[in-house]
Amino acid sequence: MQAISHATVAERLARLAQVYEHGQASPLMDQTLEKLMTHEAEQSRAQLGELETDLAELERRYGTKSEEFYARFQAGQTDDRMDFVEWASLVQMAANMRQRLWLLTGMVAS
User: Fold this and answer.
1) Does some domain include residue 100?
2) Which end of the chain is more exposed for a tag (fewer CB within 10 A), N or C?
3) pLDDT single digits (tens) 86-107
């Protein structure tokens, strides 16, 4: 199966939004969309849980909260050891996943 470009998907979603704006969505469309959003939110919560477990381990190992570490990392106040590069990446990935969850559910992830 060939991947669909982001532009094509965005175009299709815009057309879908117009169907909804004109009140022409069917119950099947509503149900399918709800299932898709719920599934994606569940997957995102699971991935966020894994990221948070990894972050907690690094916080325990270095005795610093991720927010504090990341501020120092961004300011260039840490060295470039591999753990720190990985930690910074995990902080960014968790933030991205929280944003994705907010977009999918309208709720802030804990």
Assistant:
1) yes
2) N
3) 999 999 999 999 999 999 999 8
